[in-house]
Amino acid sequence: MKRFHVHVAVHDLQQSIRFYSALFGARPSVEKLDYAKWMLDDPRVNFAISTRGNQPGLDHLGIQAESEAELEEVGSRLAQADVSVMPQKGASCCYAKSDKYWTLDPQGVAWESFHTLDSVPTYGSDTSIELGERKQAACCAP
Q1: Would you state the torsion angle of the CA atoms of residues 126, 128, 129, 135, taken in this order, to the nearest 10 degrees?
Q2: SS3 92
Q3: 129: confidence class by pLDDT, cuts 50, 70, 90
Q4: Which residues pair with 136 in a beta bridge?
């Protein structure tokens, strides 16, 4: 079963951890100096925050697949959506190694579809997504 993913850039990580921990009724499952992530089952979401974004607010949305087959299914659906899609294999981002597909929706919101393979000791690097004539910043985008 897939999981919805939201990544929000924040000014103050500790203040945001306190807020979201109260909102979700749970502490983060991953907590680093610049990043925190909640893997919630109700609602079923991978909610991440970091101090790494260009500006505070929504960084990107996504769909986390539990298997390579689920990821390929999402990639096939994106191909049918008539949008530019950028595959990324073995990417190190947000303290995880993942296979991904990046795209931008019609409003310019970055979407990351991914299957996590392993954890890694570093955050990764922030870059921007350039698909066609559109460009959007997102954490760890290729």
Answers
A1: 160
A2: strand
A3: low
A4: 129
